[in-house]
Amino acid sequence: MKPQRCATLLLLVCCALSAQAQSGRRQVKPPPVAPVPTPTPEATPTPKKEAKKDELLFFVGADQNSSYQSLPLGYYDAVLQGCASRLRAGSSAAVEVSERDVNRGEAIKKAKAETKAYVVWLNLTFDAMARSYDDLVLEFIVYAPETAKVLTNGRSYLRGQRAGPITVDPNARRTSGLYRQELLKRAGEDAGDRIVRALHLAVPIQN
């Protein structure tokens, strides 16, 4: 082989080795780093509303047409308000007082239609030996919701009112309708107190 040709081959070999060496020194680019995902904030859970405890409810109505004698409407108002006030004070119950006449059949029908409210039916009548309005008797019956089952009943008398002064002129006791209404209110309060005790409600009765 001619020396010139050998030199040319040698030069080509050297160039090839040099190029290979250069390519070997090239740094391989690392794969691109995946972007760090931004954490999605967790949704704040909506606080669950606590189940509301069943409220104690009373519906109070009076039969204003059961007596064979026509009684003043103020008498019925007195027993209704007296009974309702003691139910509220003794049990912290919500009390609805009917503004219209409620006979016994309607009270039973009302109780069967209710899901929570106890129906209190009041009736003013006369004692067997009655001689005047001072011998009025307040009858009360409590019906359970849905079933209309009688939970308690009884009678309150005007002469058996709770202890405590009545702020009416004592000289007008036998002639004043206001005094008699106060006695009727107390008979209603007595009925309310007895209903609270009969149903074993937890809140102590406030005097």
Give start-end ranges of low-pLDDT stretches: 48-53, 160-172
What is the average per-residue confidence, as pLDDT, rounded to a whole number? Answer: 77
Bulk shape:
rod-shaped
- Helix/sheet category: alpha/beta
- The main sheet orders its strands as 2-1-3-4-5
CATH topology type of the domain at 57-198? Rossmann fold
CATH architecture of the domain at 57-198: 3-Layer(aba) Sandwich
Strand content: 15-25%
Instruction: State the CATH class of the domain at 57-198.
Output: Alpha Beta
Task: State the helical fraction.
Answer: 25-40%
How many E strands?
Answer: 5
Largest sheet: number of strands, sense, barrel closure: 5 strands, mixed
Q: How many helices?
A: 4
Write the H/E string, N to C: HEHEHEEEH
In whole angstroms, the N-to-C terminal distance is 135 Å
Topology:
Elements: H1 3-25, E1 57-63, H2 73-91, E2 94-97, H3 104-113, E3 118-126, E4 136-143, E5 150-157, H4 177-198
Parallel strand pairs: 1-2, 1-3
Antiparallel strand pairs: 3-4, 4-5
Helix pairs in contact: 2-4
Could you give a quick summary of the protein structure above?
By secondary structure, the chain is an alpha/beta fold.
Structural features, described:
By secondary structure, the protein is of the alpha/beta class. It contains four helices and five strands; from the N terminus they run H-E-H-E-H-E-E-E-H. It has a five-stranded mixed sheet, sandwiched between helices. Helix 2 links the parallel strand 1 and strand 2. The model is unreliable at 48-53 and 160-172 (pLDDT under 50).
